[in-house]
Amino acid sequence: MLDKVSSVFYNLKSADSNEEMQNIAKEVSPLLSEHSSNIMLNEDLFKRIETVYNKRNESGLDDQQIRVIEKYYRDFIRNGAALEGKDRDKLRQLNKDLSMLSLEFGDNVLAETNENFVLLIDNKEDLAGLPESVIEGAAEKAKNMDEEGKWAFGLSRASMTPFLTYAENRDLREKLYRGYFMRGDNGGEYDNKEIIKKMVAKRAKKAELLGYETHADYIIEKNMADSPDTVDDFLIKLWDAALPVAKTEVYDMQKIIDNEGKDFKLAPWDWWYYAEKVRKQKYDLDESQLKPYLKLENVRDGMFWVANQLYGINFEKLDNIPLYHEDVEVYEVTEADGSLIGLFYLDYYTRDSKRGGAWCTSFRGASYDEEGKRIHPLATVVTNFPPPTEETPSLLSWDQTTTLFHEFGHALHGLFTDGKYDRTAGVVPRDYVELPSQIM
Ligand SMILES: [Zn+2]
User: Fold this and answer.
1) pLDDT in tens, 74-109
2) Model confidence pLDDT, tens digit, residues 190-243
3) Is residue 407 among the annotated active site residues?
């Protein structure tokens, strides 16, 4: 019951939050952390798990069952079950503190993204360079803020990226860019610097307590990469390959700036704007001319078509399921023979109650009940796409299109998951989880 309610609550807190939910989260997060510690640090329970674990290979368990007991055993160890005396209390307190800090961190970022910054334009000349659909979206955003006749730009990607890509006014580009990158770093009530310091210190303490060299060692242990050194190797390889390419791009962009007779060095808030100019000049590709072909509904239907061609599955929109917001759609996903796989929710548009980015999660994972009956998964994808305006449907950029396919890959992973136990069904290492999304 608790898992069921928590996953619904925390999913909604990401997708459609409000002050009341934030306050509830602050109240229940330490309780949940305490509850989890009570289970993980229960000595009698751990003794039983250890007994099953030690005899796992000689007690007739099948492969899935062996995997499940290995996972549980490791969970308990990683959460301090092998600790003694005062160390157990220390860990309990660290976990509680960390859960509160990460909550505050997220709430601050949300406030700094959606409430504390807006670029309000009342001079039409400052809109020079922007495509018509972007201007309409900004007018609508201003209207919703009771600033009719003006144009508003915020720090959601849907609002910010087009402005940084097309707006000719360099000072305003800088203002918006700084607004985004200074989130949580403006001093005052929503500043995250102290929170980060505390989190780093507490994570280091927790790692030390559990016998790891660093927090990174603690985290990576569960993953396929296995050690922080492997991760560093990957990053260096990527860096070596990417740096010369980035330098060529900077050279191309600076050339355009110089040819325009302007006297400045390429700054971060120029990157989108001049990258777009390079694209036009070098490849004759105009992103805004691509957009009309990428109407949200068409991209969605294309995505379902691809899944049908690849996997034979079908999607049918349902109108008889209660939804948490009017922007949300839900689809029934079925096999070629008509049997039910699960439900798939889509929550498209950017709004103030939603955190930034795009993600896939589930209201319920796939598993089986005690009688062996399949529990159908409820997968959901949340994105921050531009809402339609009165004149224009929601048009996606190429980036947003691949983002939707990417998140859809995660959703298919959740929908196709077929395991007996929810500890292992669909639960994979963090650095494996991107495989299905990359395939899509
Ligand atoms: Zn992903």
Assistant:
1) 999 999 998 988 999 999 899 989 989 999 999 899
2) 999 999 999 999 999 999 999 999 999 999 988 999 899 999 999 999 999 999
3) yes
Give the Å distance between the CA of 358 and the centre of ligand 1: 9
Domains in the chain: how many in total? 4
Catalytic residue among 112, 115, 407, 434: 407
Number of Cβ within 10 Å of residue 348's Cβ equals 24
Compute the distance from residue 410 Cα to the ligand 1 centre, in Å.
7
CATH no. for residue 322? 1.10.1370.40
Tell whether 274 and 192 lie within a shared domain: no
Residues with CB under 5 A from ligand 1 (ion): 437
User: Are the beta carbons of 212 and 221 closer than 8 angstroms?
Assistant: yes
Domain that holds residue 276: 232-285
Residue 14 CA to residue 421 CA, distance in Å, equals: 27
Entry pTM: 0.82
Specify whether 30 is located in the same domain as 98. Answer: yes
Whether residues 431 and 313 fall in one domain: yes
Q: What's the gap in Å between 426 CA and the centre of ligand 1? A: 14
Together in a domain, 214 and 102: yes
